[in-house]
Amino acid sequence: MEEKELILIPKIERYIQYMIEVIIKLQRTEKFSIGNEYKTSMYGILKDAVYVPKIDVSKRLYYIQKIDAELVLERIYLRIMLKNRWIDEKKFKVAMEQISEIGKIVGGLIKYYAKNNKK
Fold this sequence. Notes:
Elements lengths: L1 H23 L3 H5 L1 H18 L5 H27 L5 H29 L2
């Protein structure tokens, strides 16, 4: 499972880089409100993803589920940005595709650790 965990970090990095470019272009008020929330969430995901392979196997599921919950939040933030026309449809779709890709890996990790954590 180490391989999936290692694939996750560069995908998160690319996603963060893309979203920072999007957030920088937001209107000033949104950049400092929803933009800060979004950045905090993304950096939290990256931090948790780095912890996963380094901590005890029994604690990994917790961090992976945290990542999954943050991805749900980020999808909501994106829908809010789209509905308020702070981002266009193209940026929305690209970001959602990246979140979906990360989400699939996270889902696989959740299944793996949920199955292998049972004693």
